[in-house]
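TA notes. Do not distribute before section.
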Amino acid sequence: NKSDFLSSKQRQVWHEYLEKEGWDHLFFSAHIEQKKLDDAAYEARRKEAASIGNAFSDTEPLEHRETQNTPMSTTAEEREALCSGNIGIETPLTRYQLMDWMLHFAEKNKCKPDARFQDKMQFGMVGFPNVGKSSVINVLVGSSKHTHGLVRVGVAAQPGKTKHFQTLLLDDQPNMMLCDCPGL
């Protein structure tokens, strides 16, 4: 997360270092993907208000930007092709690319879905406080400040916002489940 703070050259140097150390890694930016989700939700709310004749009074500007989001791959072969080599060095991975990578990683490591959880693949989010765990979860869930009805986990500048273990489902990825916990 937060790889938007780095240039592609810096991401390349980190990639080489992490690869030399034998660490699986990829580059993602919750900030960039959250902006895309917020823009899309804002536009949807604006169109909905216009269709029922209401004035849309939200004054937040909408930035139109091309999204690189594509539908999720459905087969292991498609996922392997999509994931091979692209770990976000040139541009940080999109939300869908990150979800594909997560599933690819689980398949590569022979992780199995759990029947106790409707055969969903479980992914845990652990780490130090204030590294963006909750921000990544909100992006993966597809939550925006302009949408209602989606679970949104708390994000705060001070450490310790996440107080307890929680599980979250992804509406557009029915075979995945996220598990969030307080920072270590």
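Switch to the second chain here.
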Amino acid sequence: GAVPSIVRPGAKVSYVPGAALVLLTAPARAAGGFAEHLPVGEDVDFVWRLAGHGWQVRYEPAAAVAHQHRVRLGSWFARRMDYGTSAAPLELRHPGTLPAVAMSGWTAAAWAAAAAGPPPAGPAGGLAITATATALLARRLAPLTGDQTWPVATRLAAGGTVAAGRLLGSTLTRAWWPLVLPAAVAVPRLRVPLAALALAPPVLGWAERRPPMDPVRYVGARLLDDVAYSLGVWRGCLRHRTARPLLPKLTWRAPAG
């Protein structure tokens, strides 16, 4: 993207590719350099270890470096799968950094209720959960926000729930589709909400970036990219005998945004 950012787990830019890294030699040596046994994800691991040693790594979008990309479908798809296999070893080396999705449990419960229940009960259940989370958040914020407590709590809780829908949609296609697709086939009422969640991130991405291609091809390419990556994630999980990159990380404290 076009916004500079610090790079570390949990940041807006959580990783960068190693095509162009400018480093001080002292911290590079202190962090141990690249892990040579990692065929992919070695640049992510290196940057995270630098951050773990207290060094700041920043993404600078003004720097541009040409890179020879794979342009044939087969080789591109295979490489995207390879990248996905890095999730399991990275999670094992840096526990807690690569869940399938990280969000408030209240938000996840609201979306699950809205998607799983038949209308109007399902959406009403989601609204009820969001209202409960808003009330709990308002109680926490009251000492700090005074007469603005409810407007602030509503904006944070409701706005966070809406934004989380995009995050959940990405997770469906980048991690969970081998489970979600059979569920949608078996339970007809899940098809529309799950399809809407899955399509929302690429459609919104096209609207924000306006790339030099039509929205149909862009959305198709994004979904194909997600499928390739998720196949790699599952393959890596099987190889390393861990399911942690496929599991959500939920927090149940009243959400603060």
